[in-house]
Amino acid sequence: MNAKPNTDGAAPPSGGAKRHVVLQVLPALVTGGVERGTVDISAAVAANGWESLVASSGGPMVTELERAGVEHITLPLRSKNPLALHRNAGDLAQLIFDRGVDIVHARSRAPAWSAMSACRRVGRPLITTYHGTYNAQNPFKRWYNSVMARGEKVIAISDFIAEHLRARYNVPSSRVVTIHRGVDVELFDPARTSAERIIQLANAWRLPDGVPVVMLPGRLTRWKGQGVLIEALAALGRDDMRCILVGSDQGRSHYRRELERVIARHGLTNIVHIVDHCRDMPAAYMLSDVVISASTDPEAFGRVAAEAQAMGRPIVATDHGGARETVVPGKTGWLVPAGQAAPLAAAIGEALALDPAARDALAREAREHVCAHFDVKQMCAATMDVYRQVLAG
Q: CATH class for domain 21-182+376-391?
């Protein structure tokens, strides 16, 4: 991609009516909420008869794009090196021109800087999705993060993030659109999760029959609150249960060892088990009697809370961030103060004490709540509406 792109904003000529082309850019397609949202939207774009392109440095989720009829373009968009950002801007500008891209949708900061430069060169609109609060310990970091607030439309994944955008970057409400993250309620459906899958996972995790299971899904990083949960279980003082911490340490082996020491210090070695990434999360939720989201920092949305409710499982989440929008206290779960073991222990005890009738009622209400407000189809439809608004000028 070394040819100089046309900078007058004109798309290359075509022989017939031009269908719209959307390009999404992100660092990589490995795992996570940003990646999942990209795959979901790219499939929706293709399903609407538009051309869907995704540019990243690659990863295992590329195969999901290809199955949906979406083309992936490999570019080193993971790099934050200023020279790489400059080269990526040129390559993206050429790509936008060559493929007649109408809209560029950036989902992460480094590729967003390159995409913004490219869009300015070729006169195309940039849309950004603001996925988190991002650390801003100094003015430079705050400036670096600000690119995610510079889209012609800025999609916030929760009302909490929308308010953060307005407060930190003074983004006018006319440019901010709240589109909650979506859950695939067909994938996360108790009725579609077979007993065989559940049994297979229970055997893999060596769970004894008949004991209550508490699960915290989330990568092993301190702010996800695994340590708080361990302290809560010690305060709860029950030895007739199991707790599963599901998530990869992603190279944070020192934190994993720290958790193992805390587990041993509290005499919970037979109770709390750390397992790696799980490929069958619907089955994991079905194995759980209570699901925990103990994040000490606010979740921008909180995918775990939404998925757990879709599966009809009681959720205990911390009372801040996106959880306040996804959990209905007293009806679909519990909200507890962040970083405090005692209230978390009390909520876990209440959830485990639910009788079958109360558990069934909570399951129905929780699933209905997610299906009504956080279905991935709603997220995709709302995002397509934003694309159409921008194209309409």
A: alpha beta
